[in-house]
Write the C-alpha cells for this entry.
Amino acid sequence: MRILNNEVDWPIPSWTDSEVEMESVLSQLQEMSFPSEREEDWRYGDIDEVTLEGLKIASLDAKPTIEAATQAGVEGVSALIEPYGEFDNVLVLTNGSPSGVKLSLDSTLEATGNSKRRGDLEGFELVDYGFSQVPLRLHLPSRTTRTIICDLGSQSATLGPRTLEIVVADNAEHEIFEIRLGGTRDSIEVPRTALVIGEGSKVTYTSLQKREMDTKEFAYLNITAGKDSTVNCFHLAVGAKYGRLRTDCDLVGENASAKLLSGYIGGGDQTLEFRTFQNHLAKKTKSELLYKGALAGSSHSIYSGLIHIAKGAVGSDAFQTNRNLVLSDSSHADSVPNLDIQENDVRCSHASAVGPVEDDELYYLACRGIEPGTAERILVRGFFKELLGGHPLEVLEGVIFDSLEEKW
C-alpha cells in the first residue's frame, strides 16, 4: 500500500467507526505526495530527510479499552506528574492508545470517530485521522478541574498516530496540561489534540514537548473557541531532533479570545518548527501570540504564522510576535509572519526579530561589574521571563533553565 508516495505495510484499524470514511482517507493519502521542501508550508525545514518507509504501526491484538486502562490505573506515572501538582483527571497514552486512566466522577472518556478540523488537512493529519488506533474524546464538566495527559510515545521503527479531542462544557473553567515524552531515533510521533471550548468557558492549556533528542514529531493542536470563551495556551519545546507543531485557533463565537504563548530552546542539530493560524471568524474576537526561542549549537527554528480576519469579523483585534535569540554562529532562525485581512473595522499587527543578545545590554551589566558570560546568561533567562509571568505551572521555568544549561 502506498501512503503519501511511500511504500508501507500498515494494518488498517478494523474497529473504525466508518468504513466508507476510511476508504475516502486512504484514497486521499494515495493521491497526495509526501511533504517537500519545495512547498511553501515546508520549505524552511528538513522534511526531505523524512520518510515513512520501514515504519510500522504498533500491532494490537485486541482493541484497547478505556475500561482496561482505568483498571490499570496511573500508578506508573505518579512520579512523572508529581512535580506538577494534583490533578482530577489523568490520561496516559502509550503507542497512541490509553494505557492508564483516572477520571473525576463527572468527567467522561469515550472511544469515538475522529473529528476533522476546518479546512484542508495536511498529509500527516490524514495519516493520524486514518490510522489512530483508538481516537478518544474527553468531556469536561461545567465546573473547575485540572487534567493531565501523559503521552509516552511509541516504539522503535514505529509511526505513532494519536488523536484526542477535549470537549469543554459551557461556563466551565479548566486547566489542562499535556506532556509528551519518549520516542526513538527510528520513530515518528504524530499526536493531535483538539480543544472544543463551550460558551463562556475559560481554558488554560499547557504542553511540554520533551521527546527524546533523536526522535521526530509532527504535532497538531486544533482549537475551537465558542462565544465569550477564553483560552490561554503555553507551549514549551525542548526535545526532538525535528519537532514541528501546527496550531489552528478558530475563534468561532463572538467575543471569544485566545492568548498563544510558546518558548523553545534548540541545541545540537535540532530543528524546532511552529506554524500558527489565528482565525477570527466572528465579531469582536481577540488573539495575542508571542513565540520566543533561544538557539545554540547548529540548531534551527522556523516560525510561520497567519492572522486571518474573515469577512464580517468586525471589531477583531489580533497581534503576532516572534522573537529569536541566536546564541552561536552556527544557529539560525526563520521567521515569517503574515496577515490576511478581509474586513475593515479591525486592529492587527505582526512583528519578528532574529539576532544575538544586544551589545548595549551586555555593556550595561558589564559596567556594573558582571562578567560577560554571566551577563549573557542573565539576559537570556530574562528573555523568557515575559512568557512565564503569571503562568500556573511555574515549574516550567526550571525546565527552561535546565535546558539552557544543557544545550548552551
Summary: The mean pLDDT is 92.
